[in-house]
Amino acid sequence: MLEKRNPPVGARPGTLAIPEGSPPPRIYLFDYSEETLVEGLVDDLDDLEPYTRTESTTWIDVQGMGDEAALWRIAEMFGIHPLAVEDAVNLPQRAKTELYDDYQLVIARSPLVEDGRLEVPQVCILIGRRTLLTFQDRYFGFFDPIRERIRDGIGPIRRGGPDYLAYAVLDVLVDRYYPVVEDLSERLDELEEVIVRDPQSEDLVGIHKVRRDVATLRRVGWPQREMVSEMARSPSPFVSEDVRVYLRDSFDHISQIMGRVDFCREVAVGLMDIYLSNLSHRQNEIMKVLTLMASIFIPLTFIAGIYGMNFEHMPELRFRGAYFAVLAVMVGLAVFMVGYFRRRGWLGRRRRRRPD
Amino acid sequence: MLEKRNPPVGARPGTLAIPEGSPPPRIYLFDYSEETLVEGLVDDLDDLEPYTRTESTTWIDVQGMGDEAALWRIAEMFGIHPLAVEDAVNLPQRAKTELYDDYQLVIARSPLVEDGRLEVPQVCILIGRRTLLTFQDRYFGFFDPIRERIRDGIGPIRRGGPDYLAYAVLDVLVDRYYPVVEDLSERLDELEEVIVRDPQSEDLVGIHKVRRDVATLRRVGWPQREMVSEMARSPSPFVSEDVRVYLRDSFDHISQIMGRVDFCREVAVGLMDIYLSNLSHRQNEIMKVLTLMASIFIPLTFIAGIYGMNFEHMPELRFRGAYFAVLAVMVGLAVFMVGYFRRRGWLGRRRRRRPD
Amino acid sequence: MLEKRNPPVGARPGTLAIPEGSPPPRIYLFDYSEETLVEGLVDDLDDLEPYTRTESTTWIDVQGMGDEAALWRIAEMFGIHPLAVEDAVNLPQRAKTELYDDYQLVIARSPLVEDGRLEVPQVCILIGRRTLLTFQDRYFGFFDPIRERIRDGIGPIRRGGPDYLAYAVLDVLVDRYYPVVEDLSERLDELEEVIVRDPQSEDLVGIHKVRRDVATLRRVGWPQREMVSEMARSPSPFVSEDVRVYLRDSFDHISQIMGRVDFCREVAVGLMDIYLSNLSHRQNEIMKVLTLMASIFIPLTFIAGIYGMNFEHMPELRFRGAYFAVLAVMVGLAVFMVGYFRRRGWLGRRRRRRPD
Amino acid sequence: MLEKRNPPVGARPGTLAIPEGSPPPRIYLFDYSEETLVEGLVDDLDDLEPYTRTESTTWIDVQGMGDEAALWRIAEMFGIHPLAVEDAVNLPQRAKTELYDDYQLVIARSPLVEDGRLEVPQVCILIGRRTLLTFQDRYFGFFDPIRERIRDGIGPIRRGGPDYLAYAVLDVLVDRYYPVVEDLSERLDELEEVIVRDPQSEDLVGIHKVRRDVATLRRVGWPQREMVSEMARSPSPFVSEDVRVYLRDSFDHISQIMGRVDFCREVAVGLMDIYLSNLSHRQNEIMKVLTLMASIFIPLTFIAGIYGMNFEHMPELRFRGAYFAVLAVMVGLAVFMVGYFRRRGWLGRRRRRRPD
Amino acid sequence: MLEKRNPPVGARPGTLAIPEGSPPPRIYLFDYSEETLVEGLVDDLDDLEPYTRTESTTWIDVQGMGDEAALWRIAEMFGIHPLAVEDAVNLPQRAKTELYDDYQLVIARSPLVEDGRLEVPQVCILIGRRTLLTFQDRYFGFFDPIRERIRDGIGPIRRGGPDYLAYAVLDVLVDRYYPVVEDLSERLDELEEVIVRDPQSEDLVGIHKVRRDVATLRRVGWPQREMVSEMARSPSPFVSEDVRVYLRDSFDHISQIMGRVDFCREVAVGLMDIYLSNLSHRQNEIMKVLTLMASIFIPLTFIAGIYGMNFEHMPELRFRGAYFAVLAVMVGLAVFMVGYFRRRGWLGRRRRRRPD
Question: Which chain B residues are closer than 8 Å to A175 by Cβ?
Answer without folding.
Answer: 7, 9-10
